[in-house]
Amino acid sequence: MKVFINKLILSIASVSALAASSIAFAADQAGNANVEIVSAITISEDTQVDFGQIINANGTCSMASGGGLSGTTGMGCTGTETPGLFTINGTSGAVVDINVSAGATVDGVTYNPVVDGILTRTLSGGSTSVSVIGNIILSNATDGVKDIAYTFTANYQ
After folding, report:
1. Is the dihedral of CA 7, 8, 10, 14 positive or negative?
2. 101 touches 67 (CB < 8 A)
3. Where in the chain are the domains?
């Protein structure tokens, strides 16, 4: 019986030594999480796009960089035109991507906005200005003043 107990103690000691040696192979390593906090982007519409008066004839009237109008014969695309102007504010030195998208057609009038210039801007001093031009399409439009919504979007890269 004494031999059996000695063998049992030896077996338990061997198992304990084996368990202790496997623990010696475990290790811990601390990790890090990084984040850059930036100011939220704000956008203000400083000037609305204005095509002035256009004669009601089916066709397209386009606004060029700087505001010059040209279009389909008979539309009289020579009104007082004004490009839209937006100001984007955010983190100084950050780069933003700009996009514009058309809204719904209103009473036969469709406005297709276009960013005047490059679609990627750097927020110098935390700010940049962006002009919007585009074209107006008349298709059986009704007379009157039309206020056509569109979307201007800026996102950090």
Report:
1. positive
2. no
3. 42-156
Instruction: Dump pLDDT digits (tens) for 8-49.
Output: 454 555 555 555 555 678 999 999 999 989 999 999 999 999
| Angstrom distance (rounded) from CA 146 to CA 143 | 9
> Which run of H or of E encompasses 80?
none
Q: Which residue has the tokens 């004839």?
A: 57
CATH topology for 42-156? Immunoglobulin-like (2.60.40)
- Do the strands 59-63 and 120-122 form a parallel or antiparallel pair, or are they unpaired? unpaired
Q: Answer for the pair 48, 113: CB distance below 8 angstroms, yes or no.
A: no
Extract the tokens encoding 27.
């290790």
Closest CA to 122 of 101, 144, 151, 97: 97
Find tokens 């839209």 and name the residue.
84
Q: Residue 79: how many CB atoms within 10 A of its CB?
A: 15
State whether residue 10 is helix, strand or coil: helix
Does this model's pTM top 0.85? My answer is: no
Whose tokens are 């368990």? That residue is 19
